[in-house]
From TrEMBL:
Gene name as annotated: TSPAN31
Bilayer disposition of the protein: Multi-pass membrane protein
GO CC entries: membrane
Protein name: Tetraspanin 31
InterPro entries for this protein: Tetraspanin/Peripherin, Tetraspanin_animals
């Protein structure tokens, strides 16, 4: 790539990297919002942390773009500091997303489901076309709760139940677990991969900040 000198190369590379950060920030926000919108997946609060990371990454990328274009010393300094903090936070959140196992997700769903009213549960069941949360335990209380939820369920899938056979409706918990697993894997993978590029962004901004701008007045203080 011909960029007319080290200063121009550094500026162009830093601008391109910040455009990537903008896109990654939008992707994280979009996927996290999609994940939280499905039933009670919003009870997995780490997904909210991903939205916060996406917003901060988006904002700091805009600051980095402006600082790179104008070779603004102060903006580039704060860009390096905040991007370093975003890297640490993003790394932690991404690892948490990948480390969250199914049993922990089930516990979060059960705790949230238990405090929902019957009306709210029924609305979720109708929207997701499923009945009950989960029925994979020997706990008598949980079994009774599932049977009660199934009896009160008005989802369309219940109309397909065959007399004398088991329930044909899928369990809402299974649907939400599948959805949350997909969202967490995407968020964790994308966040973890691009978090390491933020180290490159800090180093590149540090190098670019210490270079002399050939467009500036030679007698001006840099």
């Amino acid at each position: 790539m011909v960029c007319g000198g080290g200063f121009a190369c550094s500026r162009n590379a830093l601008c391109a990297l910040n455009v990537v950060y903008v896109l990654v920030g939008l992707l994280l926000i979009g996927v996290a919002a999609w994940g939280k919108s499905f039933g009670i997946v919003s009870s997995i609060h780490i997904i909210g942390g991903v939205i916060a990371v996406g917003v901060f990454l988006l904002l700091i990328a805009i600051v980095g773009l402006i600082g790179a274009i104008h070779h603004h010393q102060v903006m580039l300094f704060f860009y390096m500091v905040i991007l370093g903090l975003v890297f640490l936070f993003q790394l932690g959140v991404s690892c948490s997303c990948l480390a969250l196992n199914t049993s922990r997700e089930e516990s979060l769903f059960r705790a949230t489901w238990d405090i929902l009213s019957n009306k709210t549960r029924n609305e979720i069941e109708v929207n997701l076309n499923c009945c009950g949360l989960l029925n994979n335990t020997n706990d008598p209380v949980a079994i009774r709760t599932f049977q009660m939820d199934y009896n009160l369920c008005t989802a369309m899938c219940k109309d397909n139940t065959t007399t004398g056979h088991g329930p044909s409706c899928p369990k809402c918990g299974e649907k939400m677990l599948k959805h949350s697993d997909e969202a967490l894997k995407i968020l964790g993978g994308v966040g973890l991969f691009f978090s390491f590029t933020e180290i490159l962004g800090v180093l590149l901004a540090m190098r670019y900040r210490n270079q002399k701008d050939p467009r500036a007045n030679p007698s001006a203080f840099l």
